[in-house]
Automatic annotation (TrEMBL):
Entry superkingdom: Bacteria
InterPro entries with a match to the protein in the record: Cyt_c-like_dom, Cyt_c-like_dom_sf, Cyt_c_1A/1B
Signal sequence extent: 1-29
Organism name: Billgrantia pellis
Name of the protein in question: C-type cytochrome
Gene Ontology molecular function, alphabetical: electron transfer activity; heme binding; metal ion binding
Protein keywords: Electron transport, Heme, Iron, Metal-binding, Signal, Transport
Record domain Cytochrome c: where: 33-132
Length: 135
């Protein structure tokens, strides 16, 4: 019967759309969850020295908008000479290498951190990217 095959096709299409919407919902929820994890890790590991608020510096500079910013470039923060003279821009790769071992990446930096594991670094970097308006 031709009508049965049309109904079957429509049912399959509807089921496919429903699954696609369901998948998009879960993907969005996963992104929100990962961002929340990154924010939680940032608060646990970084807020003792860094703020995410623009212009609010603590022992370290504000990390608001850090992704895409040249190292040592905020004029209202007193960076170490190592960071002021570093010829690098903060991106996923440079942040990852720095957070793995700041003194190994830039010997002489004043950042006090033994290094973070890969998963923690990734979540924090994802959070910093989201706060920088980058994707």
């Amino acid at each position: 019967m031709p009508g049965a095959s049309v109904r079957s096709a429509v049912s399959c299409l509807a089921a496919g759309l429903w699954l696609a919407l369901l998948g998009a919902t879960f993907a969005h929820a996963g992104t929100d969850t990962e961002r929340a994890q990154g924010e939680r890790l940032f608060r646990a590991q970084c807020v003792g020295c860094h703020s995410i608020e623009p212009g609010v510096h603590l022992a370290g500079p504000s990390l608001h908008g850090v992704v895409g910013r040249p190292a040592g470039s905020l004029t209202d923060f007193d960076y170490s000479s190592v960071l002021r003279e570093a010829d690098l821009v903060w991106n996923r790769d440079t942040l990852d290498a720095f957070l793995a071992g700041p003194d190994d990446f830039l010997p002489g930096t004043r950042m006090v951190l033994w290094g973070l594991d890969e998963r923690t670094r990734g979540r924090i970097i994802d959070y910093l990217v989201s706060e920088s308006g980058e994707r």
